[in-house]
Amino acid sequence: MLTINPFAELSANIPVYAMQAYVVVMFLFVIGGTVLDMLHKKSAQYFFENAKKAEKSAKRTVSGGEKTSLAISTLTSEVLTSSEFNNQKRRISHLFTMYGFILFVATTAIMIFAYPTAATPTPSIIPLLWHVGALSLCFGGYWFWFSIRVDVNSEGKKWYKLDRADLFIVSLLLTCTFALIWSALQSAGVSGWSTLAFVLFILSSTVLFVGVYFSKFAHMFFKPAAAYQKKITRADGSRENLPVDFDLTDPAVQAKFPDIPEYMGDNPPYMGLGIKRESPNHY
Question: Mean pLDDT across the stretch 173-179?
Fold first, then answer.
């Protein structure tokens, strides 16, 4: 099962051009949904207007080399390792889901376009990575849904409570779940149930890609740009048009704001443990 290309087996019943056309159409839906999302929320307009506004508050010019360094830092930190997550469970779950999705989508495209039939034997590593990607996504996604999401430290939602924002993760999980079930049933030669699993797989993936405009799918394209812009504003001193970042331990600042030592102590960033109470870990 793990080393068999399920799409090559499928080509006996569905024309290759139909499978390839479906992938192309879904890709166009992702582009179209992302563009519509930008136009509706005016996110791109806000992004560029905010960047222009921040430039006016800049205290120094960031060089091209420094911008390149910040772009690489954004790629290696926020994008590749999801360092913005302070909750390590959430971070690990996200990484399994993200890399699983990338593996799953990439190998799906390779198998359908490069090795679509039994006449073009598929290297065993490709379907193996396809299954690993789907399993990785399911591991990260279901961990998030049934453990992290219901924890009041994170979101504190019932596992069965669905919101519009859940369209992305639910359709994503169902897509990979039914893909794995379809592959297993197809390998076992259970034709009837295999066909049903395939239909559910296609329905789930269609909802995933067609629903880009209505889901959180597009955030994966905006997040790196926003993280990069935040690094730029810190580097040029504009600080996203926020007030000056005072050092509360600086005697000059404390002299200017005499209430700081009185109400916050002489070392404000280290004000102790606060109220000692039970951590909200209940489900």
Answer: 96
User: In the prediction, which pLDDT does 279 show?
Assistant: 58
Residue 142: the pLDDT is 95
pLDDT tens-digit map of 96-142? 999 999 999 999 999 999 999 888 899 999 999 999 999 999 999 99
Those residues whose C-beta lies under 8 Å from the C-beta of residue 228, and which sit 6 or more positions away, are 70, 71, 74
Identify whether the C-beta of residue 58 lies closer than 8 Å to the C-beta of residue 240. Answer: no
Q: In this structure, how many other beta carbons lie within 10 angstroms of the beta carbon of residue 191?
A: 11
Nearest to 75 by CA among 236, 217, 225: 225
| Rounded distance between C-alpha atoms, residue 92 and residue 239, angstroms | 29
What are the backbone angles phi and psi of residue 170, rounded to the nearest 5°? -65, -50
Quote the tokens at residue 42: 């005016």
Among the residues of 237-278, which ranges form H helices? 251-256, 259-264
* CA nearest to 178, candidates 197, 194, 195, 193: 197
CA distance 33 to 20: 20
Mean pLDDT value across the chain: 82
pTM of the model: 0.78
Query: Mean pLDDT over residues 179-203, rounded?
Result: 93
Smallest CA-to-CA distance from 134 within 166, 191, 178 is with 178
- Give the three-state DSSP class for 65: helix
Give the position of tokens 């099962």. 1
Greatest Cα-to-Cα distance within the chain, rounded to the nearest angstrom: 80
Assign 3-class secondary structure to 195-235. HHHHHHHHHHHHHHHHHHHHCCCCHHHHHHHHHHHHHHHHH
